[in-house]
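Methods, example record. To illustrate the input and output format used throughout this study, we show the complete record for Transcriptional regulator. The sequence lines were provided to the predictor; the line carrying structure tokens was produced by it.
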Amino acid sequence: MKSIWFFDDVDLFKILCPHKFKSYKSNHDFNAYKKKDYIYFEEDTANKVYLIEKGKVKIGYFSESGEEVVKAILSKGELFGETAILGNFNRQEFAQSLDDKTSICPIGVDTMHSLMRESQTFSLKIYKIIGFKFKKLERRLQLLLFKDTKTRLLEFLDELYLDYGYNCEKTGDKIIQHPYTQKDIASLIGTSRPTLNILLNELQCENKLEFSRKEIKIRKK
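The corresponding predicted structure is encoded as:
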């Protein structure tokens, strides 16, 4: 199982894209986005789901004070906007491209429902994906409610390692090369950027980790 911040370690694009189905392939196009382009906004009509062919997409929303809150950063093969399948008529979040060459496979809700009716296996995969996402959101809420900020950070780093990390053979350290900014990480663990920076520096002084803009090294215990 992947971390609570991401979907299963599987390229959903290869499983779900309508290009796999002859009756839908001829009428199916891809959408291209540049960095910072929005795929949809909060309150937009929810009539499609999306698969990422390539690139990265940020999912989030804006708080009442106007502050951006990041829910997840998704990459190739991952699904988003899936609540449209369940009957949600409006978006409760925004989706924004993080790469200059992001390619998205949009699937109309009617098309998705048709594919689900035609294939029980396809339908079960969709419901499994949605159920798994709800479980991760529940787990994230539990972390935010019941664990202190430092513990949330350490658990997030452990899970980030599962998605973006590898072991250094020489030292045994865990190397994490990730797509997040400090602002993103702070938002995901429910704290402020200054507090996150204090905790990272504290852990670095304790020789537990080293960090730079896109890499975190967790020292071998």
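Annotations derived from this record:
Residues 120-146 form the longest helix (27 residues).
The radius of gyration is 19 Å.
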